[in-house]
């Protein structure tokens, strides 16, 4: 039996990563019907999606009022948190908070945050993954991009255990606009 919460979270994260690689595509927010029938499973999925979206709404609202600490309340408050952005991996709640404080020194630098195109997929009773888009306006740090978040249930609440956020590169003048279509890797030539 795993004794610590941190060890259980790391085991869950490993299972989630392994499962994600083997999972087949599905409709967002789907899960197998429960013994209570398909309506009970649908209600449960809808409740989970609403709960997770409420966490993201709270994050957005905290950000837009310039409150980084309240924004960070959505994350697990320990060293199991993994935050990946800008080609760097940060581990732990404190390191992630310091990264935000260094980059966004005051409310004016934080601008206005919005989330869109949210897709939530349950990965069991106590875990879910969310894919979405973010946009930051009204700041010199303005930009947009995508994110994927692994949420875990912590008591009666959902917390972010793993955050991978990527900014879309600014367009190069004269270059074609990027496509949302998947790109294929070229096959190396045999010479």
Low-confidence stretches: 7-43, 183-187
The CATH architecture assignment of the domain at 40-167 turns out to be Roll
**General form:** globular
Helix count equals: 5
Write down the CATH class of the domain at 40-167.
Alpha Beta
Spell the H/E element sequence. Answer: HHHEEHHEEEE
Beta-strand level of the residues, as a percent range? 25-35%
Secondary-structure content class: alpha+beta
Strand order of the largest sheet: 2-1-6-5-4-3
The largest β sheet comes out as: 6 strands, mixed
The percent range for helix content is: 25-40%
Return the average pLDDT rounded to an integer: 79
CATH topology description of the domain at 40-167 = Nuclear Transport Factor 2, Chain: A
Radius of gyration: 18 Å
Distance between the termini: 54 Å
Topology:
Layout: H1 5-22, H2 38-64, H3 68-72, E1 82-85, E2 88-91, H4 93-103, H5 107-110, E3 112-122, E4 127-137, E5 143-154, E6 157-167
Parallel strand pairs: 1-6
Antiparallel strand pairs: 1-2, 3-4, 4-5, 5-6
Could you please describe the fold and organization of this structure?
- The structure is a single chain.
- This protein is 34% helix and 28% strand.
- With 191 residues, the chain is an alpha+beta fold.
- A six-stranded mixed sheet has the order 2-1-6-5-4-3.
- The longest helix has 27 residues, at 38-64.
- The termini are far apart.
């Amino acid at each position: 039996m795993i004794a610590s919460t941190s060890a259980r979270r790391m085991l869950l994260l490993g299972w989630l990563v392994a499962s994600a690689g083997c999972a087949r595509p599905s409709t967002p927010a789907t899960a197998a019907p429960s013994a209570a029938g398909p309506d009970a499973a649908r209600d449960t999925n809808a409740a989970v999606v609403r709960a997770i979206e409420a966490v993201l709404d709270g994050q957005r609202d905290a950000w837009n009022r310039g409150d980084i600490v309240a924004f960070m309340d959505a994350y697990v408050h320990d060293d199991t948190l993994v935050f990946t952005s800008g080609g760097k991996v940060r581990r732990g709640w404190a390191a992630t908070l310091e990264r935000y404080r260094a980059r966004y020194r005051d409310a004016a630098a934080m601008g206005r945050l919005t989330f869109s195109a949210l897709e939530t997929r349950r990965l069991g009773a106590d875990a879910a993954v969310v894919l979405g888009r973010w946009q930051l306006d009204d700041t010199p740090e303005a930009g947009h991009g995508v994110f994927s978040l692994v949420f875990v249930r912590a008591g009666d609440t959902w917390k972010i255990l793993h955050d991978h956020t990527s900014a879309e590169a600014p367009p190069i003048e004269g270059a074609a606009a990027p496509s949302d279509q998947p790109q294929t890797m070229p096959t190396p030539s045999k010479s």
